[in-house]
């Protein structure tokens, strides 16, 4: 079972108006009546990808302006009659390889899959990076200073992922999943026990009814025999 996390990335219309100016993907200001489309954001830890799914009903793909970067997601449909704008930074300090984005538009759902290059481990508040990746905004000077800290538990100068930190993250996730599974099994066990108890009670009531019916039938037969004998004696 692959562990995933879902995030709410909703942005208000006011926030959209404030941030649109510095995005090179925009060729015009945010039009009036622009809406934020329904969407979902999911992190897949095993495959190290993020998946963004956006619902764009009745919007042809040629009118979708998709411009994801390594640090934030951007999409608009300003050239279509229905105006949508979706822009948000990736959570947990995630950085992705936008050049390797996989895009699929099926029906009214646009799905964008991006490989993760960097992510913050919320369990120990450390930054985990793919080997060989140098995060955006880091100068060569800062990169060189990291070479002196190879023995630290955080990310090394070559950007390799701290194995202990990753193991800690995986173990924490596994523990959480085990607890959820154990709780689910306990509930299922209680449900089965309850059903079995009800079945036993029903069978016990049925057995008592059968015993009572058999007893009543035997008493009726005995009564009829006594009446028959009594009738014979009278006839003699």
Task: Report what the structure shows.
The protein is an alpha+beta fold. The protein has a domain at 4-139: Immunoglobulin-like. Helix content is 37%, strand content 22%. It is built from three helices and ten strands; from the N terminus they run βαβββββββββαα. The strands form two sheets. Strands 1, 2, 3, 7, 8, 9 and 10 form a seven-stranded antiparallel sheet that branches. A hairpin with a 2-residue loop joins β8 (102-106) and β9. The radius of gyration is 35 Å and the shape is elongated. The N and C termini lie far apart (90 Å).
Write the layout of secondary structure elements.
Elements: E1 4-7, H1 13-19, E2 39-44, E3 49-55, E4 65-66, E5 72-76, E6 85-89, E7 95-96, E8 102-106, E9 109-121, E10 126-129, H2 140-146, H3 163-235
Antiparallel strand pairs: 1-2, 2-3, 3-9, 4-5, 5-6, 7-9, 8-9, 9-10
Largest sheet: 7 strands, antiparallel
User: What is the residue-mean pLDDT, rounded to a whole number?
Assistant: 80
The string of secondary-structure elements, in order, is: EHEEEEEEEEEHH
Unreliable residue runs: 11-21, 153-160
The number of helical runs is: 3
CA-CA gap between termini: 90 Å
Shape verdict? elongated
Total strands: 10
- CATH architecture classification of the domain at 4-139: Sandwich
Radius of gyration: 35 Å
The amount of helix comes to 25-40%
| CATH topology (level 3) name of the domain at 4-139 | Immunoglobulin-like
Q: Structural class of the helices, strands and pairings?
A: alpha+beta
Query: In CATH, what is the class of the domain at 4-139?
Result: Mainly Beta
Tell me what portion of residues adopts beta-strand conformation: 15-25%
